[in-house]
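A.,

Following up on our hallway conversation. Structure tokens first:
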């Protein structure tokens, strides 16, 4: 936690979210792909989305809830890559926002150029992966409000003198 965004202290209870192994591939001794967290609040409840793998090796987005940002309850997969080809593609850099009476889910797919979004009537969907719409060529998107306007940041790669270069765009 921090009061000034510069000095940070570890929370005494060290809260850690882990997805349920009933659906997710999770192991503390090996790479389990639980990363790219996105935290938001809706109607007094905190929610967390992360990158995940299913037990069947499918790319997914996990969803968890909390009343205090310390104790988290796994709500299962929010969206699973349907496959059958490339179902292992991890769904990364999730952002989930409620706007205009709908929920909007933004994400990238591992090894697929660009960012996509889906819209649904409820927080839990239904989300139809096949209805996704590409909207930007970048990766690792962050969508947030700044001074009352929606902002998007993302990184992209380009070659310069034969070497890869990275840039953040807003």
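Then the amino acids I'd put at each of the 170 positions:
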């Amino acid at each position: 936690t921090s009061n000034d965004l510069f000095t940070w202290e570890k929370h005494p209870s060290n809260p850690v979210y882990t997805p349920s192994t009933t659906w997710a591939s999770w192991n503390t001794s090996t790479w389990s792909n639980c990363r790219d967290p996105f935290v938001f609040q809706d109607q007094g409840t905190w929610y967390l989305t992360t990158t995940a793998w299913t037990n069947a090796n499918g790319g997914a987005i996990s969803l968890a809830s909390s009343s205090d940002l310390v104790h988290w309850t796994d709500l299962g997969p929010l969206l699973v890559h349907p496959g059958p080809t490339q179902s292992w593609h991890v769904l990364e850099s999730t952002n989930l926002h409620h706007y205009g009476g709908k929920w909007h889910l933004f994400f990238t797919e591992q090894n697929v150029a660009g960012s996509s979004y889906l819209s649904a009537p409820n927080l839990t969907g239904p989300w139809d992966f096949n209805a996704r719409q590409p909207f930007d060529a970048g990766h690792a998107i962050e969508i947030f409000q700044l001074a009352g306007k929606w902002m998007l940041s993302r990184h992209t790669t380009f070659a310069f003198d034969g070497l890869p270069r990275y840039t953040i765009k807003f």
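The longest strand covers residues 149-160. Curious whether your intuition agrees with the design.

B.
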